[in-house]
Sequence to fold (495 residues):
Amino acid sequence: MRATFYDLINRNKWKTFLFIVVFSLILAAVGYLLASVFRWGTGSYVLFGLFIIFYNLVLYFNSDKIALLVSGARPADPHEFQRLHNVVEEVAIAGGIPKPRVYVIDDPAPNAFATGRNPKHATLAATTGLLSLMNRDELQGVIAHEISHIRNYDILLMTIVGIIGGLIILFRDVFLRWMWFAPRRRNDREGGGPAQLVLLLVGIALAIIAPILVVLIRAAISREREYLADASGAYLLRYPGGLAGALEKLGAYSGKLRTANGATAHLFIANPFGKDRGAVRSNLLATHPPIELRVRRLRSLEIPADGGKPA
Amino acid sequence: MIGWIILIVVAVLVVAFIGIYNSLIVIRNRVRNAWAQIDVQLKRRYDLIPNLVETVKGYAAHEREIFEKIAEARSLAVNAKGAADVAKANNVLSDTLKTLFAVAEAYPDLKANQNFLALQEELSGTENKIAFSRQFYNDMVMAYNTGIEVFPRNIVAGMFNFKEEQLYQVPTAEKEAPKVSFAR
Fold:
């Protein structure tokens, strides 16, 4: 059945919501476990928890500066990059947001990213490779994808996800520390019985899989938001062809971005290490879905040349 | 006991009522803002045209007919009043611009001129901006019309006379594709 823009967008938003719920439940479970077995000095751990929140907030408020610095971006001169500025302004108008600041990265690898905590403080960067590879329609598609990230508040979302993930790991560490250093105290207290034992086993299981789950869920959320940015971008332009064509060209390019970096990789439209090319099924650890699947979803929105009846 | 419950229910209703009313004001103002933004882009196009005409004249001075047509269409658009007339006049202007670019195809020196290329990109960009600002306006109208029609917001909307807004629509006569004539 051929999908509509609205179908794709709703599906992705729903999936993101589910992942956040699961993530929060895991956090709650680990936290509850901790509260029920942990007796002494919570002071230092509260402090550590606050540090995690503070650290992520600092990252959030400076995400644009950091991303620009790491990737070696420079402000795009309006005369030299007239077409880029025009395209960004067009799509910003379509999206009803102020025009983001436009930057350029000198690199033959075609790529682009958007960052900034909300639409009022947004920044967008494109590589010179992207500008020479794409025609105007395809460039417009890429920019629409990036501006959709801004409109969908994806930076804020990934920050919250980072905070929850950090807290889960923290709780798990605390729990393991307690387990390791206080086995005797357990026996001294009330008999415990089967309930305590079950709680303990659940705790151990969670402690082992928690970090794996955190990584998997964070990656899954990142992939869903990439699909959502594709769908939102196509909706913004009322035209999926530009972005689909751009992704196809990106998929064919085999090089790596010179300033590719693990910390900023998830911000780019295509994995700067080239890991999403040639993949056919979603790698569970990947921040980006395979390009082929993204193109397929976008093309499924198109009306076939023969006018095809809607299914 | 009953007294407290009634009080709470009334309080909730009042808060909800205020919330709905305020949200209707917000989405209606978005529609008005979006409408005004279209004019901003149209004006930008009017301002770009004289420069473009001068550049083309530098290479194709004898194409007098098209220059006159553009000047006329531009003047009509600038002076048009009322949404329908402005829309119609601008569609005519779009058509004359397309003819101008078609004419320019015959002059390779002109096509290589950096100034001309920059202006062409500007105009192309402006055409897109006009289209997107109209699209955005329609998005805001859709949100607003839906907002005042759904239940229970329609109750508040009815009480304060929130009226439906008109979507931007292309005047029917203009829906035909423009005929680009290469005849001299």
